Amino acid sequence: MHIPDGMLPAEVCIAGYAGTAFLTWLSVKKARSSSEDSARVVSRASVMAAAFFVVSWIHIPIPPVSVHPILAGLMGILLGWISFPAILAGLFFQAAMFGHGGFTTLGINALSMGGAALLAGAVYRLLRGKHKENMSLLPGFFAGFVGVSIAVIFTGSILILTMPEHIDKGIELSSILAMAVAHLPLAFAEGFFTAFVVRFLLKVKPDMLI
Amino acid sequence: MSSVNARMKTFENWDTTLKIPSLFLLMMSMAFIRDQRLMFLLPCIAAALFIGSGIRVSLLLSRLRAPVFFLLFVSTFLILFSEGESLARIGPFALKAKGAILAVNTCIRVLSVITIGIVMVNTTPLSGLSVKLKRMLIPSILVDIGIMTGRYIMVIGEDYRKMKNARKLRGYAPGGSISKRFRVIVPAAATLLIRGFQQSEMVFHAMHMRGYGGDLTHKNVRIDDNGYSTSGMIMFLLTVSLSAMLVILEITID
Fold first, then answer.
1. B9 and B94 belong to one structural domain
2. For residue B182, how many other CB atoms are within 10 A of its CB?
3. ipTM for the complex?
């Protein structure tokens, strides 16, 4: 899911950084305007990014294998606008510590995962409406599902569309579709995982849910 | 051994504020290269920097594990679905000559750029990194988030390790049905998130009490300019020239 260094042309990497810079600025601005000062933004984004980083080490079972959760949906639900800088920090450490993703592609990877988190958070809040307690499983599931799906489609599209022009256009399109279909089990698993975590949090610590 | 240490020292002494931008620029310019005739330059540059840095080969190999799977997927795609003449056939699949060349070029470029990234990260000392990053005009709020994330990954990672040990001591054995595994991993994940949330509240109060005022601009950042070492400046100029040369060659080669 994370595009490594050297895979994308420099122009795309620069565009990715520009998009990420804009979304980071917008996220911090929005988070501050909702009565959260800089200290709250920094503490919430950094500590929760670390928590999500550690949670991503837990494997979700998809028989016959198990996979790491992506957690874009859950981050969008719990952190709202702050999820974008938190994901940016998490991706930086994944690149530095484990070689997942890269430094030149950090902007594109952040746009893919961070954008998915923002959209998934919005989907959750839209579906949940005002009734926080009664509706937890379905909005949680959709947020997790949407988070993975958007990230996969964005990453796949960027990868395939930036490949050299020797690839047939029809094959490009069907490859993006095939990639999305191949990730469906992961999207379902992440959807269920997100839904159950949200339900657990609603019972134990409901003030965590924005 | 002593020569390796001396080489590492040279790279570590290369001023961070010059090293990170110049190596990043080099990585970007290497990502810009698409012409096959220039491709041989990339592994040469990467190898020279890697050998110069004195980093262990085992570290390089461990960092390359994740991207190698990605490269395998992309290479297979390119070899199978490129247009042009077939090189050979395996069952229903035709292996394309043009795709094979593209795949080799992609592998060379990716592995070279990743190697430079590994050199950049593993030769940068952590002490004083936040001030240096702010000197490089990276918004202070992002630097603070990055530095604190790094610190709390260790703290929450330790919590996770303790939870796993406690689970083992209570006789939990991994495996079983999906619902049984979900019943274990969901509370574990949620508990870690709750701990993170509570920790973030404590950190917020501590920062608030100290009058923290992180900003997206640099008006509150104190910048002490101690000057740069001569060797650092030479390395910087060499790397920037190399990056410029690569870009110019790529544009003008035809």
1. yes
2. 16
3. 0.83
